[in-house]
Amino acid sequence: xxxxxxxxxxxxxxxxLETHLSNQGYEVIKARSGKEALEKVKEDSIDLVLLDxxxxxxxxxxxxxxxxxxxxxxxxxxxxxxxxxxxxxxxxGIEAGADDFISKPYNKLELLTRxxxxxxxxxxxxxxxxxxxVLYSLATALEVNDPYTHGHSERVSRLAxxxxxxxxxxxxxxxxxxxxxxLHDIGKIGVNITVIHKPGPLTExxxxxxxxxxxxxxxxxxxxxxxxxxxxxxxxxxERLDGRGYPEGLKGEEIPLGARIVAVADAYDAFTSRRPYxxxxxxxxxxxxxxxxxxEGRWDREVVEVLCRILAEDEVG
Length: 317
Fold this sequence. Notes:
This protein is α/β, with parallel strands linked by helices. The chain has helices at about 10-20, 35-45, 60-70, 85-95, 110-145, 150-165, 170-180, 195, 205-210, 215-220, 230-235, 255-270, 285-295, 300-315; strands spanning about 5, 25-30, 50, 80, 100-105.
């Protein structure tokens, strides 16, 4: 039974909405203020919110904004029930994150149709999140019992996000880089672990096995629609600006910027972490290596310098 939270400071409106919804088999939870609504959303497992806009104290816009800003509640559909007619009022609601609007006095059939539609959307979003969580869990499982790479993808993700922010990339691109960074090594699921953990130089044949992991990562993510925008970053994070990288030998700006950012963050974390075949190097030495290799055409020099600024600020902080 889906649970619908109805929020209105007028008791008669709550009673009317509850009657319509209860008759359709929904479980109804009521709140008479914005503060109470936020408490209910946190306490109960809510599937949809019908939210009055004009309320004393915290209005519906603020309530909606807080619901959508919270990672735990952001996918709950919020329908604003309002007597306001101006376009500006709707724009304000959209900016707050509202999923739909119902005008007062509302039509019962329209109300129930929109409720059913948004509940279906929520169910699809939940299934999508489950699929994403499974993929991220697989990526984490790769590292959790590995003393050499434990936490590597999370560190790369945090650093890549900092670089993207300092480069002032659009928020959506920042989020894409953050998520793709977490999955950049997902293809290592298909690589022989004895090769990955070999305590010495790899043979040419072994290196070819390791080089397959970006393509394996692409194959893992390809069937998943939500992962499509991440694939270029996952697939190309081992390309080099001089064209001597893999899997396709892309050059310069043929390599997506997100992949160039992740490549630098990945390399820095690898340099400063212990590996089976070498000891970790210092922060200073890692920076020196990256700067030298960027001049030689391996890394994006702008990205490397942004990383150096971040590390210098962290050191001062």
